[in-house]
Design goal:
The complex is a heterodimer of chains A (113) and B (868).
Chain A lengths: L14 H11 L2 E2 H11 L8 H13 L3 E7 L5 E7 L1 H26 L3
Antiparallel strand pairs in A: 1-3, 2-3
Chain B lengths: L1 H28 L4 H12 L2 H33 L1 H30 L11 E8 L8 E2 H10 L3 E16 L2 E10 L3 H5 L5 E2 L15 E4 L1 H7 L10 E4 L2 E8 L15 E4 L3 H4 L9 E9 L5 H18 L10 E7 L7 H37 L1 H9 L4 H35 L17 H26 L4 H5 L4 H41 L9 E6 L8 H16 L4 E7 L9 E6 L5 E9 L3 H5 L3 E4 L12 E6 H7 L9 E4 L2 E9 L14 E5 L8 E7 L6 H12 L7 E4 H4 L5 H35 L1 H9 L4 H30 L15 H27 L3 H6 L2
Helix pairs in contact in B: 1-2, 1-3, 3-12, 4-10, 4-12, 4-13, 10-13, 10-15, 10-21, 12-13, 15-21, 15-23, 15-24, 16-19, 21-24, 23-24
The chains are: A alpha+beta (113), B alpha+beta (868).
Chain lengths: 113, 868
């Protein structure tokens, strides 16, 4: 077997948080979110549309994002998502939580012997 | 939901195709050709269908997931407070159990399809009547034959009648209740034999030619050993040899609900088995038929009534348009005597009463839930703050509530099982073998669950909505007086309504008790206590007239020598059995008078202690060949000779000139609330009938005569089956059965309702005490005496009880109108019942109030002041 392709899947459990983050800057449609994530992560993470749409449904059901059909700047009809106030609060909570855990993991990995 | 689904699908498709468009654009921007770009985009994204399914599955999963998590959460909450859960489930079980039990009874008697019968929807009962509204329940053989031969709207017409048979297998004879049926009886009902066969067409053509018999499953198992060799066996039926040709399937019991038929014989055997009902004129058959597929009830009714009119015209009968013959066609039920309607009304009333208890229980549970959720208000507020969403919270709470009500339905079902088992064992004062299976079946279970869930939805919605209200700030803080007040008002309203509803039930029970009391005290004109009765049917033993006469004479001689016998007599039937024989006499001036009749012997009047006002009783000289005589009651005597000298007057009865030899005092003949009809007593010797009832007045307890009479019968002929025996008191108790049942049922319901209301009142009073602890402490510190505090609290409770009583009385006075038909002479607004039950309510409320009030008055003021 040759050299394995690097794993571009989003870290499990973080997709929702990353979507919320993407939307925290401005409302976007699905493809826009995917591209933003891909670009900002410099290609490390690539999202597949199935998981994306599923996550949208989950977040919408939980009241963390709102959805609205609008004309995109290209003139096409697209579903735009906006962050709600609850979603913004949730993003803050999860970001704080994530940061805490990541630093803990980093400390554990750095620890000698 | 389906349109929603397809709309959601379309949206997903649209979103995916937009995604593809954008991805294609991106690839084009990177330098690919449009086709290449599109192909690559498609490949990266995958097929639209797959994406759609992925999203949709996730949606489904999350829905089921939320439901399951709601259910699990509900389970956890209920388990965390087991006492609360048990109390709530118990209260719901009471209400649900009451309703389920009554419904189970209704189901058994009125709603259940006839067991073993197939295709009941197209089966109809046929009752001959007249256009003026009178209907006979039964017809004659001629009626049946005419309909059978001429009806077009019916595929088939069948008939059946009751007959008592004595079936001897081997050396043992049993008296069974059997049906005499037309040959197509089983075919029309769609019943298939469990063993052997049913009647063939030619077995119902010639009178007396085919002595064949079909037996019931139960009879086959118990008397014929349950062996296949039973088919083809010969048994003695009323002394004649019959061949068993088949066994009916286990569930089939004939088509008279509650009276199980054990055997069926062809109508054509009637001359041998029931000689007095001649095969042509007497109306002793119930008829039913199978509607043709393209016909309906109305069409059939028109056709059959037209046939009846044509037939009457051919027979030369004169008729008026208002009183022409007609045929009533209705769906076939298990109650051929049209008792269905009255019974349905009675049971619906009981069901209504039971629903009141369910209402009380629901209100009680709503109050408990409200209080409970108020205690959990902090938890609710936190959850709402964390974004649970009000709808989600309400859904979770409702799941909890519905789970409670579901458990309550199960509990109620168990109660219903026990209650119906107990009711089945009640001894019915009937002289016919009634067998009712009241126990609940699947339909009843579905009903119980449905009603319970509906009640849960109605009574649970308010507490759930209240608990999840957005008003968070006041909930996170402790009970501020503002919100508390509104909550208290709600609970007060709930308590008052419970008290009021309980009072309605109690008043109904009180009225029924008064009616029962009055009914028992209504003087029937004779003495019911101290008489033993036994019924005989010598025709069914194969006795002819002479043999029956000898039997009766010998039996009288033997019984008269028994120690404790005061007097012995015979009669055609017992009094006060809710039935009467109606006939007509012709007065000397030609007018016809409708009379009720009874056939009795000389000692009837002394046995019953029914006094004769004038003249004499029947004597042995009033024989068959002597002048026809009769004894009339005072009402008829007044009618026949207003001047008061009825003795010696004559009238024509059944074409014979009859002389009045005695006048009996007016009495009750069929029911306790009838208007006294003109009544004629005729001597048995002159109006012979084979079936007679022996009446024995005993010196001591008549029950002890049971075995003595039995022995006397067997000493005359050891082959005879034991007669049906009962004391006169018990047998005539049937007249008061509705009042008895209703009193017990409403009494129980009212009692439970009051208990629930009292517990609720106790709760609310205890809560009020705890809220006013500080106030009480201040008062007592300022010098108020304990008794003042006590009075203060009791006054609060009494106020609730008073309001509840007033509302209850108002509701009751409107509601009791519905039961006035069963109350004899008692007014539905009877003062004693109303006042008595109100007193009960107030006393119970006083107790429920006193207990927490006493605790308040006994509290230490210092501690009360310090309490938070």
């Amino acid at each position: 077997m040759g050299q394995e392709q690097p794993n571009t899947d989003v870290i499990q459990g973080t997709l929702d948080m990353l979507i919320l983050k993407a939307l925290s800057l401005e409302p976007m449609h699905g493809f826009g979110i995917a591209r933003r994530m891909e670009q900002t992560s410099r290609g490390v993470f690539k999202v597949n549309p199935g998981s994306l749409l599923t996550a949208f449904q989950r977040l919408e059901r939980g009241g963390l994002i709102d959805a609205e059909w609008r004309q995109s700047d290209k003139g096409r009809r697209a579903k735009y998502y906006t962050l709600t106030r609850a979603g913004r609060r949730q993003l803050d909570v999860e970001t704080a939580d994530w940061t805490r855990r990541v630093s803990a993991v980093a400390r554990l990995l750095k620890a000698e012997g | 939901m389906l349109t929603n689904r397809s709309r959601a699908d379309r949206e997903i498709d649209e979103e995916v195709s937009h995604y593809v468009e954008e991805a294609t654009d991106a690839h084009i921007a990177q330098g690919l050709t449009p086709d290449e770009a599109r192909r690559r985009a498609r490949r990266e994204i995958g097929s639209t269908t797959t994406v759609r399914e992925q999203v949709r599955d996730h949606g489904w999963e999350s829905l089921v997931g939320t439901l399951l998590s709601d259910a699990r959460f509900a389970g956890r909450m209920l388990r965390k407070s087991p006492v609360f859960t048990m109390v709530v489930v118990f209260v719901i079980s009471l209400g649900s159990g009451a309703v389920t039990t009554i419904f189970s009874g209704m189901n058994a008697v009125l709603l259940r399809p006839l067991p073993g019968v197939v295709g009941e929807e197209r089966l109809v009962s046929l009752r001959p009547g007249r256009t003026d509204g009178t209907t006979a329940e039964q017809g004659s053989y001629n009626d049946y034959a005419y309909l059978r031969d001429h009806a077009n709207t019916l595929d088939a017409v069948a008939a059946w009648g009751r007959v008592s048979l004595a079936i001897a297998t081997g050396d043992q004879g049993t008296a069974v209740y059997a049906n005499m049926v037309s040959g197509n009886y089983f075919d029309v009902l769609g019943v298939r034999p469990a063993l052997g066969r049913f009647f063939a067409p030619d077995e119902d053509r010639t009178p007396g030619a085919h002595p064949v018999i079909v037996v019931s499953y139960g009879f086959w198992k118990s008397r014929l050993g349950g062996e296949t060799s039973a088919v083809g066996r010969t048994v003695a039926v009323n002394g004649l040899p019959f061949t068993v040709i088949g066994v009916a399937p286990e569930p089939f019991q004939g088509i008279y609900t509650g009276i199980r038929a054990e055997a069926w014989v062809p109508l054509m055997m009637q001359p041998q088995l029931r000689p007095r009902s001649n095969l042509t004129g007497a109306s002793w058959l119930w008829m039913f038929g199978h509607l043709r597929d393209d016909s309906s009830l109305d069409v059939a009714r028109q056709e059959l009534s037209a046939l009846a009119v044509a037939r009457a015209r051919d027979a030369g009968e004169a008729m008026t348009p208002g009183s022409a013959p007609a045929v009533q066609v209705a769906g076939l039920t298990g109650l051929p005597n049209g008792e269905g309607r009255g019974l349905m009304r009675f049971m619906s009333l009981l069901l209504g009463a039971a629903s009141l208890l369910l209402l009380i229980a629901g209100v009680n549970v709503a109050a408990m839930l409200s209080a409970r959720y108020a205690a959990r208000s902090r938890e609710m507020a936190v959850r709402t703050a964390l974004g649970a969403g009000r709808a989600r919270l309400v859904r979770q709470l409702l799941t909890e509530i519905l789970a409670l009500f579901l458990l309550g339905a199960v509990g109620g079902f168990v109660i219903a099982q026990l209650a119906t088992a107990g009711l089945e064992r009640l001894p019915l004062p009937a002289t016919v073998p009634v067998t009712l299976e009241l126990s609940p079946d699947l339909r009843v279970l579905a009903f119980a669950i449905g009603v319970s869930l509906l009640t849960g939805l109605i009574f649970g919605l308010t507490p759930a909505l209240q608990a999840s209200a957005r008003d968070m700030t006041s909930r996170l803080r402790d009970d501020s007086p503002g919100s508390g007040l509104r909550r208290t008002l709600t609970s007060r309203v709930l308590i008052v309504s419970q008290l009021a509803l309980s009072l309605v039930l109690l008043v109904a029970a009180g009225l029924f008790l008064r009616a029962l009391n009055q009914g028992q005290r209504i003087d029937p004109g004779f003495e019911r206590a101290g008489v033993m009765t036994a019924s005989f049917e010598p025709e069914s033993w194969g006795y002819d007239r002479a043999k029956a006469r000898t039997f009766y004479r010998t039996l009288r001689e033997r019984v008269q020598t028994l120690p404790g016998t005061v007097a012995v007599s015979y009669a055609g039937r017992l009094p006060l059995m809710m039935g009467s024989s109606v006939d007509g006499i012709k007065m000397n001036d030609g007018t016809d008078v409708e009379v009720h009749t009874a056939v009795v012997d000389a000692d009837y009047f002394p046995v019953l202690r029914l006094p004769l006002m004038q003249g004499r009783a029947f004597r042995t000289t009033d024989r068959e060949d002597a002048e026809r005589v009769a004894i009339v009651n005072e009402t008829l005597a007044r009618k026949l000779s207003p001047d008061g000298n009825a003795i010696g007057r004559t009238f024509r009865f059944r074409d014979a000139r009859t002389t009045i030899v005695g006048i009996a005092r007016d009495a009750k003949y069929a029911t306790l609330d009838e208007t006294t009809p003109p009544f004629v007593y005729l001597p048995i010797a002159q109006q012979w009938q084979p079936n007679q009832v022996l009446l024995v007045r005993t010196a001591g307890d008549p029950e002890q005569f049971t075995s003595l009479i039995q022995q006397a019968v067997l000493s005359i002929d050891p082959w005879l089956p034991g007669p049906r025996m009962s004391t006169l008191e018990r047998a005539t108790g049937i007249v008061l059965l509705p009042q008895h049942t209703a009193a017990i049922v409403t009494g129980a319901l009212g009692g439970f309702g009051l208990l629930l209301a009292a517990v609720g009142l106790y709760g609310i009073m205890a809560f009020s005490v705890s809220r006013r602890t500080r106030e009480i402490g201040i008062r007592m510190a300022l010098g108020a005496r304990r008794s003042t505090v006590l009075t203060m609290m009791i006054r609060e409770g009494l106020r609730l009880a008073a309001v509840g009583t007033i509302v209850g009385l108002v509701l009751a006075s409107a509601a009791t109108r519905l039961i006035s038909g069963w109350l004899f002479d008692i007014s539905p607004l009877d003062g004693r019942a109303f006042i008595g039950m109100s007193a009960v309510l107030i006393v119970v409320s006083l107790v429920a109030t006193y207990l927490p009030a006493r605790r308040a008055a006994a509290s230490d003021p210092l501690k009360a002041l310090r309490a938070e």
